[in-house]
Amino acid sequence: MIFCFLSRAVQLASTSSTLGRQLCSACANKPVLTLFTKKPCPLCDEAKEVLEPYKRRFILQEVDITLPENSAWYNKYKYDIPVFHLNGKFLMKHQVDIQKFEDQLTKLEMHNDGNH
């Protein structure tokens, strides 16, 4: 599920249909931060709290590695969650490295701004 952090309506709509894509158009150029997680995951909850001040700058996509369709991620990350990918590339695991996150996020934002 993808969360745009603009409004609850956008969050719900962003998961399906053309309407979701239209409502989430403001999110279209935001980087996607993927969190590989499972329930329960206290470290994942802590990581999301650390990232809270940045939430308007990215789209958070959570992947539950315990779901059958995510078995490849489970096999890869079962001992490492939380694991984060930024725009599909591995970024960090176990805890948030806020400096690394900020640096990579800023690079992506500058790249996206240059493309408009």
From TrEMBL:
The keyword DNA-binding does not apply. Keywords: Electron transport, Transport. Coiled coil: none annotated. The keyword GTP-binding does not apply. It comes from the Eukaryota. Pfam families: Glrx-like. Belongs to the glutaredoxin family. This is Glutaredoxin-like protein. It comes from Chrysolophus pictus. The lineage of its organism: Eukaryota, Metazoa, Chordata, Craniata, Vertebrata.
